[in-house]
Amino acid sequence: MNEAALFPFVDANPARPGTSLMPLLPIILSQGGQEREAVGLLDTGAAVSVLPYSLGEQLGFVWQEQQTPLVLSGNLASLPARGVLVSVAVAHFAPVRLVFAWTQADDARLLLGQTNFFLEFDVCFFRARSEFEVRPKTAK
Amino acid sequence: MSLTEMLPEVQSLSRIDKIRLIQFLAQELERDVGSLIEPGGSYPVWSPYDAHDAAATLLQLLDREKASAP
To answer: Can you give the pTM of this predicted structure?
Structure first.
């Protein structure tokens, strides 16, 4: 079994330390020869992972070429989205193919949600000690 | 003063003062929790909750890629 990688919760509001600790995961996204480092929010409540518009463009995606329209919910429901596939590397683990809802919203966070980040990785949250662990999924 | 040092002092309090102490601590805890959310603050929620159709479509996209892989 792969050993888990340990990450700290990150203070999203340094003005009030400790009030907004977020499970932010550094990842490397790769697509068609383009590679970008980014930080994704682990969001167990999100049905899908979300890729902000500018990050999708930086990876070389062209909006008009995407053929998988999606309808999202919440704040993202008012803007169109498209399905895209990206290779994602977490820590020292082998890259995996993750599917994202690429939204036209640029102020959205990069979200890592149930489909399919949490299908590929097991995560343990230790919020009280401000840490979380990530490891590739294990077979049943 | 540490909690360990305080406990003997607390034990020596009268019953009524112990109740007052409990009330004081409860108010302190309530104030701490209340300060986590600012009244009138804006807290956008970007999570696409319950976007089950979108999730199903994305899984199909993933399956199609797997099926077409050499």
So the answer is: 0.77
